[in-house]
Amino acid sequence: MENNRSKNKYTKGTKGYWEAGWKRNCAVCLVMFGISFGILGIGIFITGTKFNYLTIAAVLGMLPAARTLISAIMFYKAKAYTPVEKLYDDIERTGCDNIIYELYMTGYSKSFAVAALVADEGGISALLSDDKADAEAAAEHVKTLMEQNGFKGKKIKFYKTTENDKFIARLQHLAQNGNDSDDSTEILELMTQISL
Length: 196
What we know:
Layout: H1 2-7, H2 17-47, H3 53-79, H4 85-93, E1 99-106, E2 111-120, E3 123-128, H5 135-148, E4 155-159, H6 164-177, H7 182-193
Parallel strand pairs: 3-4
Antiparallel strand pairs: 1-2, 2-3
Helix pairs in contact: 2-3
């Protein structure tokens, strides 16, 4: 998993992913809408009316553009929860492995912004970025998804933003005792797959 991150600086699960995703989706969105409106304008210019085949092509081009716009909005919402750089520094100083950052998980009724998530053989520990997020609901949602994907009996603990110190202490404990396992790598991959 680490090799994939080194190729592209802002892949899912890395610091800066929300900001980079927002910028990337905004740029793609502008280009896609620009192309669609350009095709519409060319069709009207050539035929003198909006009733032509290029109008159909322009409208069909709006569908992926709208999808990209929705992604840009989701990234904009997520990047509002980006933690301060000091928290990232504190996390990295623990020396803990198998950490992923900036996950935005959408549940059935709520969304959860996760600053950092670590996996070990026993399960996962995660730090929420949103002060108002319900840690118990986030843990229950992730537990359900993990069980659906074959990870049964895992402990899941989500820390609120007010519990940064407890999360850092958990990371220090894992760094001392080791948290690298086949399960932990698979769990991290699942967490990135179910996130924005």
